[in-house]
Amino acid sequence: MTDDLKSRILDILRRMDPPDGGGDVVSRSLVSEIFVADGKAFFSLTVPAAEAQRFEPFCRRIEAEVAKLDGIAKAIVALTAEKSAGSQAPRNSAPPPSPTPRPAGGAGGAGGAPAAPARPGANKPGIPGIERIVAVASGKGGVGKSTTAVNLALGLAALGLRVGILDADVYGPSIPRLLGLKEKPKSAGGRTIVPLEAFGLKAMSMGLMVDEETPMIWRGPMVMSALTQMLREVEWGPLDVLVVDMPPGTGDAQLTMAQQVPLAGAVIVSTPQDLALIDARKGLAMFRKVDVPVLGIVENMSYFVAPDTGRRYDIFGHGGAKAEAERLGVPFLGEVPIEMAIRESSDAGRPVTASEPDGPHAAAYKHIAAKVLQQIEEAAPRSAAPRIVFD
Ligand SMILES: Nc1ncnc2c1ncn2[C@@H]1O[C@H](COP(=O)(O)OP(=O)(O)OP(=O)(O)O)[C@@H](O)[C@H]1O
User: Which of 57, 146, 156, 364 could join 174 in a cystine, given CB atoms 3.0 to 4.6 angstroms apart?
Assistant: First the structure.
């Protein structure tokens, strides 16, 4: 069914005359992979930067035509402007990134080596200056996904990497609170945004761009454009890893990320309860469907250690995520106890990996970070992203 819809979409695209008169966009290989889910079609067109404006109305026409197909309720076509070879460096591009430092416990891998040809996401335009993008996701809310994302980012930074964190949870952004960020990011020349910095991380969140009180009602296409902007119009500078805190669930925003961004992989956060695991499985299935490697599962709020006796209590039936990971054939990345210090430090904007770097919780997150890095190397050896320009 999905394949049939994809070929009908391609037929439509073949019949439409693009504004530059250069022949149909399919034959010219300007169309990305087409992703169809829940009656929505997502794909992008890559055009030369100079043509981007002319192609905008064409994209809207494509959306209207594709939405007429039986089985498609809505189409979302993103325009990506690619810099042609030999032209000048883009104004918002970063200097070429330096080789990835080899972490303790890392798998080595292809540091500096050319791209493996069939790398996942290799056909999606990269973000200049960003080596790898890792999504932190969960099938349902409240499992500690954002807390894990922040502490994972800090764990990666502690391993010597240059790390950024992007809060893609446009519905309930929590990174500003977790990192104690209050000021609004500044714009550079009115065109790009300078990310904030906290505990050595570059940070950007939709929550920094709007007042906390502002209700955020985002429709699918708005989510897509907000995310695209936060990825491509923020001056991330050279980063080894950008950690993306995804909104919970498997909706438009996740599909957008998977469709638009060459993700090196996804980390799934789950609590040990069965219900959360069912949701985690859905998240896992979604990333697999869009060919994003699942780097592994983190079990959060895994057990409780009584402060007075030091005795460990598996209050939620600890171990569920580990068994599930084994069953699903994905790595188990580690477990984090339910711990007042983790909650209080998060709520005070001083995440535990930064505020108690030598403590046991920081050690747990650093261990998870090292495993994530090892999995990234195995799933997607480092490669240079294509250069992108927006003008
Ligand atoms: N290991 C832990 N021990 C104790 N409290 C934790 C732990 N992990 C997260 N929390 C707390 O649980 C609450 C939810 O965490 P967080 O906001 O990270 O979850 P989330 O999955 O991102 O939620 P949402 O989807 O609603 O954004 C927060 O108050 C956080 O401090």
Answer: 146
